[in-house]
Design a protein that fits this description.
mainly alpha, two-stranded antiparallel sheet, 17 helices, about 75% helix, globular, binds protoporphyrin IX containing FE
Length: about 475
């Protein structure tokens, strides 16, 4: 019987363009992160109304979550989907158009945030005209991903594809519902929901942004690239599937843990907390799978530089997914909420889990696509140590100052009045905030090593091909 012939010319150019775009926005976002960290202890660096902390902070979070994060998700999930479906993207031109629209959208988002246009909903700051652009972008992505998966040439669906499908569907639902608003001009709108309902929908969205932007697509990457880069088969497919379905089911109920001790009805808070505690189990399903996979040959963690990135990333994910549920408990929340503890938690996830996984995927993919080797493993190792030290210093200083802030805010005199004013408490933060800037500088140097390594790898590939 004649063998069926497949066209294996994958559209890697689009993947590369997404990666380069993500790296560009990553640099912008990280530099702004450094800047706002300085603004906290040196107010003179709020140099103009456009560049005050309130505006730059949103550019930092949006630039990194959507520019770096979603840019990398678009590029890397296209790569994974093509490989796992054993076919090119269903609509390669649509994907190419998506790259350009994506960059235009992020640039417009940054400009509009600097101009002060915001819906005042965290991670959903963009005003309604840009929301429409985001929805169009996501539809383009969904058509290509789902279309490619439905017409796949490999009958088996590896776990990464399930995580990618969950990302595509959940983000669409979350984004559209939380951004329902009544326009009152081109750059002004009112949330469709009011008061406590508005807060509840917002944090249902906010927490699931963590779940479906910073977790499910990153797990898809982790599950695909860990076996690829180590040559070790995934420890348990069954565990990966069981933890996938329980994670998806649980995540969507947990948002209320962001509203502990607020006017949100108590029972909704409790429901959120209970589901949050349960979330430890499916999260650790992935952690255990990661550890046992590498456990088949621990030598790999010494000899293969990528294993180090992946195993550290999943370790941060493991810590993050114990710390998160703990934070949701009323007694813990009452101490650490409204303190710097929370940015400590956030950056262990974003700098540790998300960024480390994304860079490791790029280290693996880029040389494969360009048919070359990585320029320098030594530089990659330096990169590893700098980001690790920067990340730990960032989170540890924030945890310490967070507990101190919480304790000072709660301290009362015998007559019940507060012992410390807010200004006194803030003044005590300065040394920690300065240390955070140092941590950011160390992390940024690490990322510069990475960019240099990538730049030199691309250069090497170009000189080989010419
Ligand atoms: C089982 C997993 C996790 C749970 C249950 C969880 C839980 C929580 C809780 C309860 C808070 C609120 C803290 C407070 O303000 O009192 C929080 C904040 C946050 N977490 Fe997590 N977390 C988890 C994992 C992660 C991961 C993996 C990331 C990122 C990669 C992350 C990013 C964030 C962010 C960005 C916030 C701040 C939200 C805000 O703007 O207030 N979390 N998390
Ligand atoms: C040089 C590295 C970085 C520095 C110096 C930095 C600095 C900061 C600062 C000062 C804040 C404001 C904290 C506050 O409100 O008190 C912040 C918030 C945030 N950053 Fe970063 N950041 C860095 C890297 C990153 C990365 C790589 C990501 C994501 C991939 C990220 C995501 C976020 C998020 C989601 C928040 C909001 C946290 C919250 O609401 O609690 N940051 N960052």
């Amino acid at each position: 019987m004649a063998e069926e012939r497949f066209d294996y010319s994958y559209d890697y150019r689009t993947v590369l363009l997404f990666i380069y775009s993500a790296l560009f926005w990553g640099v912008v976002g990280i530099l702004i992160g450094l800047w706002i960290s300085v603004q906290m202890w040196l107010p003179e660096t709020n140099i103009a109304p456009y560049f005050t902390y309130g505006r730059l902070r949103a550019v930092h979070t949006n630039g990194l979550a959507f520019g770096l994060g979603v840019g990398a998700i678009f590029g890397i999930t296209y790569y994974i989907t093509m490989r796992l479906c054993k076919r090119p993207l269903l609509f390669p031109r649509l994907a190419r158009a998506q790259v350009y629209l994506f960059n235009i959208a992020i640039a417009l988002a940054a400009i509009s945030l600097l101009a002060g246009a915001t819906q005042s909903l965290e991670y959903a700051e963009l005003e309604w005209p840009l929301d429409i652009v985001v929805v169009i972008l996501w539809i383009m992505f969904a058509i290509n991903i789902l279309g490619t998966i439905f017409t796949r040439r490999e009958p088996q669906m590896y776990i990464s594809l399930w995580y990618i499908i969950a990302t595509v569907i959940a983000v669409a639902i979350l984004y559209i519902i939380n951004n329902l608003a009544i326009p009152a001009g081109w750059l002004k709108s009112y949330h469709l929901f009011a008061g406590v309902n508005s807060a509840n929908v917002q944090w249902w969205y906010g927490h699931n942004a963590v779940g479906f932007v910073f977790t499910t697509p990153i797990l898809a990457m982790f599950y695909y690239f860990l076996p690829k880069s180590t040559g070790l088969p995934i420890y348990s497919h069954r565990l990966s599937i069981v933890s996938f379905w329980s994670l998806i089911f649980t995540y969507l109920w947990t948002g209320a843990h962001h509203l502990v001790y607020t006017p949100l009805p108590d029972w909704i808070q409790t429901l959120g907390i209970v589901f949050t505690m349960f979330l430890i189990a499916p999260s650790w399903g992935a952690v255990i799978n990661g550890y046992y996979t590498v456990g088949q040959d621990w030598e790999k963690a010494k000899n293969n530089y990528l294993t180090k990135f992946f195993i550290l990333a999943i370790t941060f994910y493991g810590l993050q997914t114990v710390q998160g549920p703990t934070q949701s408990l009323r007694i813990v929340s009452s101490l650490i909420h409204y303190t710097d503890w929370v940015p400590g938690h956030v950056h262990m996830g974003t700098m540790g889990w998300v960024t480390l996984t994304v860079v490791a995927c790029i280290y693996y993919m880029l040389p494969k696509i360009l048919k070359t080797e990585i320029y320098s493993i030594r530089i990659a190792n330096l990169h590893f140590w700098f980001v690790l030290i920067g990340q730990l210093l960032f989170s540890i200083t924030m945890w310490i100052t967070g507990i101190q802030q919480g304790a000072l805010q709660k301290a009362v005199n015998p007559d019940g009045s507060l012992k410390y004013t807010m200004v006194e408490i803030i003044a005590k933060n300065y040394p920690y905030w300065q240390l955070r800037t140092l941590a950011g500088v160390i992390f940024t140097i690490g990322m510069l090593f990475f960019l240099y390594n990538i730049y030199m790898t691309v250069k090497k590939a170009k000189s080989k091909s010419s």
